[in-house]
Design brief:
The chain has 131 residues and is α/β, with parallel strands linked by helices. It has helices spanning 13-22, 117-129; strands spanning 3-7, 27-31, 49-52, 64-67, 86-90, 103-105. The protein has a single domain (3-129), classed as SPOUT methyltransferase, trefoil knot domain (Alpha/beta knot). α1 runs parallel beside α2. It starts with a strand and ends with a helix.
């Protein structure tokens, strides 16, 4: 996995950075992230590179897997071993659009409540990197 794409992430930015780092991800691409890094990132401090991007066209979109709660999407397990280079996760009030992500999946949950940014990121990174 080459990196993580965060879209519209606000107050959970620090947690997303720490989550990515814990899975060995050192490049995070932020699109319309509204928060500033503040407080301690613990061992992730100065080891993760944040790249502010102006649009998704700056990355190869066919290798990005957008995670969203839309029930009609395939589950994330369908993409295991499919050459995914980036996982994209939105902030809690951001909905990823199918028009922006040719490859999208959902994390199956028992209830319709959406996961927090860092929870979705952790589950996605774990499931796609587990051997």
């Amino acid at each position: 996995m080459k990196g993580v794409v965060l879209i519209g992430v606000g107050r959970n930015l620090n947690r997303a950075i720490r989550t990515a780092y814990s899975f060995g991800i050192y490049d995070i691409y932020c699109l319309s992230c509204t928060a500033q890094i503040k407080g301690s990132l613990f061992s992730a401090a100065e080891k993760v590179r944040l790249h502010e991007i102006k649009g998704l066209s700056e990355l190869e979109s066919s290798n990005i897997l957008g995670l969203e709660v839309i029930k009609s999407l395939p589950t994330i397990g369908a993409y295991k071993g499919e050459g995914i280079d980036y996982i994209a996760v939105g902030g809690e009030s951001t909905t990823l659009r199918r028009a922006d992500f040719p490859r999208m999946a959902r994390i199956p949950t028992a209830n319709k409540l959406c996961l927090t940014t860092e929870a979705a990121l952790a589950i996605g990174l774990y499931l796609l990197s587990a051997k």
